[in-house]
Specification:
The structure holds two protein chains of two kinds. In chain A, about 0% of the residues lie in helices and about 55% in strands. Chain A is mainly beta. In chain A, the strands form three sheets. In chain A, strands 2, 5, 6, 7, 10, 11 and 12 form a seven-stranded mixed beta sheet that branches. Chain A has a three-stranded antiparallel beta sheet with strand order 3-9-8, with no helix packed on it. A two-stranded antiparallel sheet of chain A has the order 1-4. In chain A, strand 8 and strand 9 form a beta hairpin. Chain A is globular. The model of chain A has no long low-confidence stretch (mean pLDDT about 90). Chain B has a five-stranded mixed beta sheet with strand order 1-9-8-3-4, with no helix packed on it. A four-stranded antiparallel beta sheet of chain B has the order 2-7-6-5, with no helix packed on it. In chain B, strand 6 and strand 7 form a beta hairpin. The radius of gyration of chain B is 13 Å and the shape is globular. Chain B is mostly beta strands. The chains are: A mainly beta, B mainly beta. At the A-B interface, strand 5, strand 6, strand 10 and strand 11 of A face strand 3, strand 4 and strand 8 of B.
Chain lengths: ~120, ~110
């Protein structure tokens, strides 16, 4: 009964290719996120969707395009991959909607993307 | 979001209590203190959070000083599986989908 799952644990691809990472959560949450953890282990948010609407969009190259077909899914598509895109990408979800602000985030296992 | 300061690394013997400090001297009145950890090759995991009172759950205890400028995460009986990077994060209380801003955390090594 995995809570937050991602399509692949590892992805290896060449520069210039396009790749997608899919994320699904079965927690009934209405908010989902994508984080990137680089080689120095810094973990930084990229995007967030609430009820299929983009609410957080950090300074990310427009080669990265998130898509949320429904509340339970948030996919990340990356065009024209570059060496610097090599990282671990984590999906997360929470029950948002304002209010008390106590909504912890649940993370997926991560997808290690290697661009050669 | 308020910045936090944590020691880079700490050691703890298995079975002993691990006390992980965090300084958040610029925290504002509407910000919670959250703790997450990341075990090697896994996604971050929520541990506990608090506003001003001490909190305890099945994983840990959180002690927040009266002036709220610092806190301590306590793992009462550390096990080898508690070896991880522990992140102290502060964030406003008025929204559920505020981003988490991770610092460098404390690398806790629990040894036999």
């Amino acid at each position: 009964d995995t809570a937050v799952s991602q399509t692949s644990k590892y992805l290896v691809t060449q520069m210039g290719n396009d790749k997608s990472i899919k994320c699904e959560q079965n927690l009934g949450h209405d908010t989902m996120y994508w984080y990137k953890q680089d080689s120095k282990k810094f973990l930084k948010i990229m995007f967030s969707y609430n009820n299929k609407e983009l609410i957080i969009n950090e300074t990310v190259p427009n080669r990265f395009s998130p898509k949320s077909p429904d509340k339970a899914h948030l996919n990340l598509h990356i065009n024209s991959l570059e060496l610097g895109d090599s990282a671990v990408y984590f999906c997360a979800s929470s029950q948002g909607g304002g209010g008390r602000g106590k909504y912890e985030q649940y993370f997926g296992p991560g997808t290690r993307l290697t661009v050669t | 979001d308020a910045k936090t300061t944590q020691p880079t690394s700490m050691d703890c013997a298995e079975g002993r209590a691990a006390n992980l400090p965090c300084n958040h001297s610029t925290i504002s009145g509407n910000e919670y203190v959250y703790w997450y950890r990341q075990i090697h090759s896994q996604g971050p995991q929520y541990i506990i959070h608090g506003l001003k009172n001490n909190e305890t759950n099945e994983m840990a205890s959180l002690i927040i000083t009266e002036d709220r400028k610092s806190s301590t995460l306590i793992l009462p009986h550390a096990t080898l599986r508690d070896t991880a990077v522990y992140y102290c994060i502060v964030r406003p209380m008025n929204t559920g989908f505020q981003k988490l801003v991770f610092g460098t955390g404390t690398r806790l090594l629990v040894s036999p």
